[in-house]
């Protein structure tokens, strides 16, 4: 396993990061199975583990905490804050009030005294970014977190956050965690160049494109929408939808490329993401031990220029074949009041 420096922090992390979104009831209720997966990943050289408080409403963090007993010093541990936790008001968001509560809850569940990378899971337009950066800087000074980053922020909000950090003398986002895959290359146009400009580490999620690049879903083969990932977002898998049909066409071309190279489709997909110079680590999220073992076998896969050129022919750089962040479009698009003047003020004269 290769190791890279995380966003100028001096922290060395593996090029594969073990993601734990699947570590929750509904995927597998046996915590011991998940602990074994974590231990195998660590034994094979992965030293970077990413989770979030909202995964299973804290269940994922608890499993990670159990697995890291006796091994905490050897692991770079990342978690996230932003989404609703439990019922009631003020139990989500990027406010000082919530982050101070959420970080203590995460520390308790993770059974640790510190978090290496604490990430803001999504932007929160109800909270001034200065407030968020201020409380995160305080947590660094208190020793509760070592560094902080953002996740799925558009390029313009990353730039704004860095501007506020410099102007106010606050700590800055050291990392960004965006969606990135062969099927969703949109971040190549702006997010990745911005991260390079600011020296940010990048850990990418969904490199298998929500399961489309596992090889499980193929053209002209029946897709069961009642089990697995299709139950979460069935519209992303229904072949009757034109966007999905286009993805299936691309998958067939990628399967052929993988066979010519001598690797599996998932191995090809992960190798593509870590080949980008802006990417520090790719988050892999296996649900089973065989899935983990297959991905680990592909860790040494090097895609030459010919392979990358072929991928560029299949899916041009900067192209999204689907919107990887579809569940959370910005309010600038969903709130009519942000796109339409009052009726009495719409005319030019």
Structural class: alpha/beta
Using the CA coordinates, give the radius of gyration. Answer: 20 Å
The shape is globular
**Spatial ordering of strands, largest sheet:** 3-4-5-6-7-8-9-10
Instruction: Output mean pLDDT.
Output: 93
Distance between the termini: 65 Å
Order of helices and strands: EEEHEHEHEHEHEHEHHEHHH
Low-confidence stretches: none
Fraction of residues in H or I helices: 25-40%
Strand content: 5-15%
Number of E strands: 10
Number of separate helices: 11
What about the largest sheet?
8 strands, parallel, barrel
Outline the structure in words:
The termini are far apart. The chain is of the alpha/beta class and 349 residues long. Helices cover 36% and strands 12% of the residues. Strands 3-4-5-6-7-8-9-10 form an 8-stranded parallel β-barrel, surrounded by 5 helices. Strand 6 (115-120), helix 4 and strand 7 form a beta-alpha-beta unit. Helix 1 (31-43) packs across helix 2, helix 5 packs parallel to helix 6 (191-197) and helix 7 (242-261) runs antiparallel to helix 10. The protein has helices spanning 31-43, 59-67, 96-110, 129-141, 155-168, 191-197, 242-261, 265-274, 289-297, 305-314, 331-334; strands at residues 3-5, 12-14, 16-19, 48-50, 76-81, 115-120, 145-151, 175-177, 201-204, 281-284.
Helix and strand arrangement:
Blueprint: E1 3-5, E2 12-14, E3 16-19, H1 31-43, E4 48-50, H2 59-67, E5 76-81, H3 96-110, E6 115-120, H4 129-141, E7 145-151, H5 155-168, E8 175-177, H6 191-197, E9 201-204, H7 242-261, H8 265-274, E10 281-284, H9 289-297, H10 305-314, H11 331-334
Parallel strand pairs: 3-4, 3-10, 4-5, 5-6, 6-7, 7-8, 8-9, 9-10
Antiparallel strand pairs: 1-2
Helix pairs in contact: 1-2, 5-6, 7-10
């Amino acid at each position: 396993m290769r190791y890279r420096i995380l966003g100028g922090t001096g922290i060395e992390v593996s090029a594969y990061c073990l993601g734990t979104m699947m570590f929750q009831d509904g995927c597998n209720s046996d915590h011991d199975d998940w602990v074994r997966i974590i231990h195998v990943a660590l034994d094979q050289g992965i030293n970077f583990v990413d989770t979030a408080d909202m995964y299973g409403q804290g269940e994922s963090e608890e499993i990670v905490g159990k697995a890291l007993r006796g091994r905490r010093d050897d692991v770079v541990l990342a978690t996230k804050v932003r989404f609703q936790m439990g019922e009631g008001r003020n139990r989500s968001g990027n406010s000082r009030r919530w982050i101070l509560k959420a970080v203590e809850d995460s520390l308790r569940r993770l059974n640790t005294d510190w978090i290496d990378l604490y990430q803001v899971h999504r932007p929160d337009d109800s909270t001034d970014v200065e407030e968020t950066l201020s409380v995160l800087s305080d947590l660094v000074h208190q020793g509760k977190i070592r560094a902080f980053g953002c996740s799925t922020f558009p390029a313009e909000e990353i730039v704004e956050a860095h501007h506020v950090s410099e102007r106010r003398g606050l700590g800055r986002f050291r990392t960004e965690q965006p969606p990135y895959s062969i099927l969703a290359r949109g971040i190549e146009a702006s997010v990745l160049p911005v991260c390079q400009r600011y020296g940010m580490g990048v850990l990418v999620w969904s490199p298998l494109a929500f399961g489309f690049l596992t090889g499980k879903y193929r053209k002209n083969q029946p897709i069961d929408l009642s089990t697995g990932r299709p139950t979460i977002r069935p519209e992303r898998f229904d072949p009757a939808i034109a966007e999905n049909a286009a993805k299936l066409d691309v998958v067939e071309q990628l399967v052929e490329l993988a066979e010519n190279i001598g690797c599996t489709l998932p191995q090809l997909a992960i190798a593509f993401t870590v080949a980008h110079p802006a990417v520090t680590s790719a988050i892999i999220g296996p649900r089973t031990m065989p899935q983990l073992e297959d991905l680990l076998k592909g860790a040494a896969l090097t895609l030459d220029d010919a392979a990358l050129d072929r991928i560029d022919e299949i899916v041009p750089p900067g192209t999204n074949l689907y919107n990887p962040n579809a569940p959370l479009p910005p309010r600038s698009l969903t709130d009519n009041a942000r796109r339409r003047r009052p009726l009495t003020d719409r005319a030019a004269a």
